[in-house]
Amino acid sequence: MSVRKPPLNKANLMLQQEAIDAVRGQTLAPRGHFIDGRSIASDSGDVLDIISPIDGAILTSVAAGSKADMDRAITSARSAFEDGRWSKMAPAQRKKILIKLAELIERDALELAVLGVRDNGTEINMAYKAESLSAAGTFRYYGEAIDKIYGQIAPTANSVLGLIHHAPVGVVGAIVPWNFPLMIGSWKIAPALAAGNSIVLKPAESASLSLLHLAKLASEAGVPDGVFNVVTGKGSVVGEAMGLSMDVDVLVFTGSGATGRRLLEYSARSNLKRCYLELGGKSPNIIFNDAPDLAQAAKVSAAGIFRNSGQVCVAGSRLLVQEDIHDDFVAEMSRHAKDFKVGNPLDLSSQIGAVHSLSELEANLQFVQTAQEEGAQCVAGGKRILSETGGYYMAPTVMSGVKVEDNLHQNEVFGPVLAVTPFKDEADAIRIANSTVYGLSAGVWTSNLSRAHRMIEEIKSGVIHVNTYGGSDLTVPLGGVKQSGNGHDKSLHAMDKYFDLKSAWIQL
Ligand code: NAD
């Protein structure tokens, strides 16, 4: 069901509703795993229904993987790695194939985006750019990079030569979440493949469709069989089997802190595989009274929490506002929250799509209720909407009067719920900003350049924005500190995860 004609006006990257409408209702056949270059059913024959958050209906099913399926995929990845069909291919040849893959992703960009929207609920405009086009860009970037990475000669004594080689690590296991599966998956798959590794990918059980399609495109581009495998199914079954495998060398993960902890345990109980974890956040977005443009700050901050229904790891979910501008700023944020058009994510007119699942929606509403019980006020949203569609939609929600010790201040919602807390001065803002276990992202709005630099230094986060929020580019690394994780995706720094440094001593 590939869409061969470019669905967009390339001059302005505008999607057209007509093109979306042509594919949005297509029946989706049940999907198997992708192992050793072909689609196969689960060993057990079991399947998992995929529910669309757009209307709550069953969309299709994917294989409910077993430990045997995961072992089969890992064996396939291992033999592909050891016989060198990819790992020993000339970097310039790997580059050609990865760039071809980028072109195929662009060819199928609309199909990939619609698949993703149907199983995870992201608004189509965002899915098209942040999933499809960004994935293509990621494969092109790491494909282009791989024949420009050199080894080193160490400055040793004269009579000996110390060589430092970059060796691929072997079999990479990648586990990704349901939000932005294609984008986040590509951040891991592309550099791992570029470096010459084989991969087994485990998508979230509820958002596998676009990644299964990607695996087929990789095969079409010329990635040899066994080099890129996808095993679908539950984290507690196939994810655990991957984590406990003695034959996975490196595990790269994006998801919750709770699962990240499990992966470290699995590693300790098996082969001490290196684990790189990209985890959750509770990111502070700090508005000083000297912000250059408070109206712009409110507009960008609202998008920074509510787009994709707040299901963005770096979402600015804690708004810290200086006391003397607090009431006016919160009123402005509430106005923006109420203005967003929430609706079917396949309609270009919808600015915000669906919450990923019923259980996520219920958890979001529980956060609102607990916050109210702890004394916060709901000044916008706070409820499920459009329930007549059968889908899972929530009104963008602003909760004011949230205290540092409150549940809503300390814990990640991963939904469209903003916690607002006032602060007195710079020291107070820093104290509140650093008062959670997370350290993923932050924002600071001020005209004072010295203050901006102090905040960049003092706020414990992997990413910080000044007078903007949510900027993103493949050339800039993304990673957290504290309990938000320990690895970096994106940029050339991400390559470090997928190489071992191998030292060679040569007596002259
Ligand atoms: P999750 O941890 O529940 O699931 C993530 C993946 O782990 C899924 O594929 C799941 O099947 C798998 N998994 C679950 N249990 C497992 C187990 N026992 N063993 C092995 N694998 C297991 O997270 P989620 O709900 O899918 O995603 C939301 C979380 O991801 C949020 O916390 C969000 O902040 C985080 N996230 C972080 C980033 C980042 O870059 N730091 C980006 C996106 C999302």
UniProtKB/TrEMBL annotation:
<dbReference type="InterPro" id="IPR016160">
    <property type="entry name" value="Ald_DH_CS_CYS"/>
</dbReference>
<comment type="similarity">
    <text>Belongs to the aldehyde dehydrogenase family.</text>
</comment>
<dbReference type="InterPro" id="IPR015590">
    <property type="entry name" value="Aldehyde_DH_dom"/>
</dbReference>
<keyword id="KW-0560">Oxidoreductase</keyword>
<feature type="domain" description="Aldehyde dehydrogenase">
    <location>
        <begin position="42"/>
        <end position="503"/>
    </location>
</feature>
<protein>
    <submittedName>
        <fullName>Gamma-glutamyl-gamma-aminobutyraldehyde dehydrogenase</fullName>
    </submittedName>
</protein>
<keyword id="KW-0558">Oxidation</keyword>
<dbReference type="InterPro" id="IPR016163">
    <property type="entry name" value="Ald_DH_C"/>
</dbReference>
<dbReference type="InterPro" id="IPR029510">
    <property type="entry name" value="Ald_DH_CS_GLU"/>
</dbReference>
<feature type="active site">
    <location>
        <position position="278"/>
    </location>
</feature>
<dbReference type="InterPro" id="IPR016162">
    <property type="entry name" value="Ald_DH_N"/>
</dbReference>
<dbReference type="InterPro" id="IPR016161">
    <property type="entry name" value="Ald_DH/histidinol_DH"/>
</dbReference>
<dbReference type="GO" id="GO:0004030">
    <property type="term" value="F:aldehyde dehydrogenase [NAD(P)+] activity"/>
</dbReference>
<dbReference type="Pfam" id="PF00171">
    <property type="entry name" value="Aldedh"/>
</dbReference>
